[in-house]
Write a structure and sequence with these properties.
FAD/NAD(P)-binding domain, alpha+beta, 395 residues
C-alpha cells in the first residue's frame, strides 16, 4: 500500500532541500525524495546533480533585480542555517567583478551597478590603477575596472549547504527518502509518485529536479528548459601558490564580449585533501535531450577544448598558476528562455515545478526553495516574490 503525505518534494538538491526545510517550519506530512550522491560515477546509472562540488560564488551584485533580491534574501539566512545545523558552508571573502567600462545602458556591469544602487548594496568601484594595487594576484588588462562587493559575498559549499538544509528538514519532521523517482501521475484527488522501491501519494507535489526535470515522466508536459554542458577546470595549489592566492575574492571577469566571461573560485580544500582553485566559463553551446546523454556527460571530465581554453585564460589572468597540475570535470547548467527560474504549477493544480538555475542560482537556492514551499502551502506566489516573472514555460 502506498504511503501518503500531504506534500512531496522531488529532488534532494539545492532547491528541493531548501523547500523541504521551509516546509518543515510550517506544516507536517512532508517527504523529500531524491537519491544520494553516487559513490562511483562510472558505474552509476541514475541521476546526477551539479551541486556535487565544494564551491559556488555568492554575491548580490547582479544585473537583474529578481536575482539580486533572491541572493540577498538567501544571504541573510546563511548564518542562521549554519548555526541551527552546525554545518559551515559560507565563506565571506568578497566578490570582485572585472570588465571594460560599460559602453551602453544595456551592458551587464552598467545594469548591475544600477541595481546595486537602487537596493543600497555597498559596491566599491575600482579604476584600473587601484584594481592592480588591491588584487596583485591578478594581471588584468590595463583598460578594465573593478566592482568589489566586500561583505555579503564570497563563496558557499553547495554539498555542505544541501547537507545542512536536509538535516534541518528532517529534524523538523520531514521524511527523507533516498530514492530516484521514476514517475509522477495526477490521479484526480492525489498525486502518485513512483520509485523503484515503492509508491507514495500526496495532495501536492513539487518537482525540483534541476536538469533532470524533463526526464523520468516527472511532469505532465516538458518544460522549455535547456540542460547545457559546462566544463570546469581545477588548479592544484602548492604552498607557494597558496601564499599568492589565499586572500583573493571570488572573481568574475568579463572580456570585451560579455558572453566570454569566466568565473574564478578562491582556493578551497576538496575531499581528497588537496587545495584547488577552480575556474569555469559560460560559452559551451548545445543541450541534452535524453537522460542517457546527460548521464554520459557527467561521467566525463568535460570538453578537452574548453578545458584548454580555460587553462590558457587562467594563466593569463593569474601568472602564478603556471606549472600547477590541472584537472577538469563536467557540470550541467539549466537555462530557461526567460533567464529567470520557474516557480509555478503545471497543467495539474497538484503538481508544481521549481527549476531553471540559469547558471547563477546556487547562491539564491534558499530563497528559491522558500518560494517552492509557498507554492505548495498557498498555491501561488505574489508580486513581492516576483511570481508572474517565474511562470513556467512548456514545450
Amino acid at each position: 500500500m502506498a504511503e501518503s503525505f500531504r506534500y512531496i518534494v522531488i529532488g534532494g538538491g539545492m532547491f528541493g532541500a531548501a523547500a523541504a526545510r521551509h516546509l518543515s517550519k510550517s506544516t507536517e506530512g512532508v517527504a523529500l525524495i531524491g537519491p544520494a550522491e553516487p559513490l562511483d560515477y562510472q558505474s552509476h546509472d541514475g541521476v546526477f546533480a551539479s551541486h556535487y562540488d565544494e564551491a559556488r560564488i555568492t554575491r548580490r551584485f547582479d544585473a537583474d533585480a529578481l536575482w539580486a533580491s533572491f541572493a540577498s534574501r538567501s544571504l541573510d539566512r546563511y548564518r542562521e542555517i549554519e548555526d541551527e545545523s552546525g554545518i559551515g558552508f559560507y565563506s565571506e571573502v568578497g566578490c570582485l567583478f572585472v570588465g571594460p567600462q560599460p559602453r551602453s545602458e544595456a551592458d551587464y556591469l552598467h545594469r548591475a551597478s544600477a541595481v546595486a544602487l537602487s537596493m543600497a548594496f555597498p559596491v566599491e568601484t575600482l579604476p584600473p590603477t587601484q584594481l592592480a594595487n588591491r588584487f596583485p594576484q591578478f594581471d588584468f588588462p590595463s583598460h578594465v575596472s573593478g566592482y568589489h562587493e566586500e561583505t555579503k559575498a564570497g563563496h558557499i559549499n553547495p554539498r555542505a549547504l544541501v547537507r545542512a538544509q536536509t538535516l534541518l528538514a528532517t529534524r523538523g519532521g520531514v521524511r527523507h527518502i533516498a530514492q530516484m523517482v521514476t514517475s509522477v501521475r495526477d490521479e484526480g484527488d492525489r498525486v502518485r509518485v513512483e520509485t523503484a522501491d515503492g509508491d507514495y501519494l500526496a495532495e501536492r507535489v513539487l518537482v525540483a529536479a534541476g536538469a533532470f526535470s524533463n526526464f523520468q515522466t516527472l511532469l505532465p508536459r516538458a518544460l522549455a528548459l535547456r540542460a547545457a554542458p559546462r566544463t570546469v577546470v581545477f588548479f592544484e595549489l602548492g604552498e607557494a601558490e597558496m601564499a599568492t592566492f589565499s586572500t583573493m575574492p571570488s572573481t568574475i571577469v568579463f572580456t570585451d564580449r560579455e558572453e566570454d566571461h569566466v568565473y574564478i573560485l578562491p582556493p578551497v580544500r576538496y575531499p581528497d585533501g588537496k587545495v584547488y582553485l577552480k575556474l569555469g566559463g559560460d560559452i559551451e553551446a548545445g543541450g541534452f535531450d535524453r537522460l542517457e546523454d546527460v548521464q554520459a556527460w557527467f561521467r566525463t571530465s568535460g570538453d578537452a577544448a574548453e578545458r584548454q581554453r580555460l587553462i590558457d585564460i587562467a594563466v593569463q589572468l593569474m601568472p602564478g598558476l603556471a606549472g600547477c597540475p590541472t584537472s577538469s570535470a563536467a557540470c550541467v547548467a539549466s537555462f530557461t528562455p526567460t533567464a529567470r527560474p520557474y516557480a509555478g504549477y503545471t497543467a495539474s493544480p497538484r503538481i508544481a515545478v521549481l527549476a531553471g538555475g540559469n547558471f547563477v542560482a546556487a547562491k539564491s537556492s534558499d530563497e528559491i526553495g522558500r518560494l517552492g514551499s509557498l507554492l505548495l502551502l498557498q498555491g501561488g506566489l505574489g508580486e513581492d516574490d516576483f511570481g508572474h516573472q517565474m511562470a513556467p514555460v512548456f514545450q
